């Protein structure tokens, strides 16, 4: 009988030891870097940053949230201002504010991304793009839409503990007829720019030729005005002197009159010998 009581005590001690170990394990918890712990104890909610903390064993419930940057991607089929359906692929970069994690859990719950963030993002995208034309999404208006969406979501979500870092328009698919029209317009603008370049080049070439022709005309005018009868007579005398000094020049007849030029007769040596 004594051995039986001893065995029962041992089992009780073992059970108590196991219960104590479990209680200690339930009491202490570690919050890892990049996470936030939310502990619910008898209706009270508290959040804990990184470190080691305690809670009431078997009573408190612990939930772990990420405090890192997260990404929510959505594909939206939305109408534009003209009534055309456009597919927009968006992405939101966000993180949970540590100090407001308990409020997020109390007001929204642990699935705050699908309950709060995703619907707010879809509503903001639809509301903004319905006021914009499709060509604005295709051109420079894309950046403006991103900035406007980011500011709108920050205004709505940051007071509730969700920090919106950025909003991105990843991809956009327009109706085929609109895409063809935009591409045709871009090509026409490029062709117009090319033609303007060609015309400008031709105008510059015409100006160059006009300047060149003017220079040639000025040169000819200067030369023609500088040639006088006296200059021609003087050049004729110079030429006569040079021919007279050459070996092949045999006879020089001076012109008759003041305007006459010299006449030069040349003969080979064998002709000169025969005539002598």
Short description:
It is built from 8 helices and 10 strands. It has 276 residues and is an alpha+beta fold. It has 4 domains: 2-66, no CATH class; 70-174, Band 7 domain (Tetrahydropterin Synthase, Chain A, 2-Layer Sandwich); 177-226; 229-275, no CATH class.
CATH superfamily of the largest domain: Band 7 domain
H and E order: HEEEEEEEHHHHEHHEEH
Helical content (DSSP H or I, runs of 4+)? 40-55%
Q: Spans with pLDDT under 50 lasting ≥5 residues?
A: 268-276
Q: Overall pLDDT, averaged?
A: 77
- CATH top-level class of the largest domain: Alpha Beta
The value of Rg in angstroms is 51 Å
Q: N-to-C terminal Cα separation, in Å?
A: 181 Å
Tell how many strands the DSSP assignment holds: 10
DSSP strand (E) fraction?
25-35%
Topology summary:
Elements: H1 2-27, E1 28-31, E2 35-41, E3 44-48, E4 51-54, E5 61-66, E6 70-79, E7 85-96, H2 101-107, H3 112-129, H4 134-138, H5 141-157, E8 162-173, H6 176-226, H7 229-245, E9 249-253, E10 263-266, H8 269-275
Antiparallel strand pairs: 1-4, 2-3, 2-5, 6-7, 7-8, 9-10
Helix pairs in contact: 3-5
């Amino acid at each position: 009988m004594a051995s039986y009581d001893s065995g029962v005590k041992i089992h009780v001690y073992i059970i108590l030891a196991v219960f104590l170990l479990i209680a200690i394990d339930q009491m202490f918890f570690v919050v890892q870097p990049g996470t936030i712990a939310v502990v619910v104890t008898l209706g009270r909610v508290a959040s804990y940053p990184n470190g080691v903390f305690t809670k009431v064993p078997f009573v408190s419930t612990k939930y772990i949230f990420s405090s890192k940057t997260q990404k929510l991607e959505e594909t939206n089929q939305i109408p534009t201002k003209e009534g055309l359906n456009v597919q927009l692929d968006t992405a939101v970069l966000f993180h949970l504010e540590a100090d407001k994690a308990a409020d997020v859990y109390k007001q929204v719950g642990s699935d705050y991304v699908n309950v709060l963030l995703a619907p707010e993002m879809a509503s903001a995208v639809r509301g903004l793009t319905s006021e914009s034309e499709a060509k604005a999404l295709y051109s420079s208006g894309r950046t403006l839409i991103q900035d406007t969406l980011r500011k709108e979501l920050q205004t709505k979500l940051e007071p509730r503990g969700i920090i919106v870092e950025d909003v991105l328009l990843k991809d956009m698919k327009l109706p085929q007829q609109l895409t063809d029209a935009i591409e045709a317009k871009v090509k026409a603008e490029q062709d117009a720019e090319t033609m303007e370049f060609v015309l400008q080049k031709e105008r510059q070439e015409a100006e160059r030729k006009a300047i060149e022709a003017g220079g040639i005309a000025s040169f000819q005018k200067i030369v023609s005005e500088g040639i006088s009868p006296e200059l021609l007579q003087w050049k004729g005398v110079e030429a006569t002197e040079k021919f007279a000094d050459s070996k092949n020049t045999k006879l020089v007849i001076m012109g008759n009159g003041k305007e006459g030029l010299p006449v030069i007769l040349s003969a080979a040596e064998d002709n000169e010998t025969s005539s002598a």
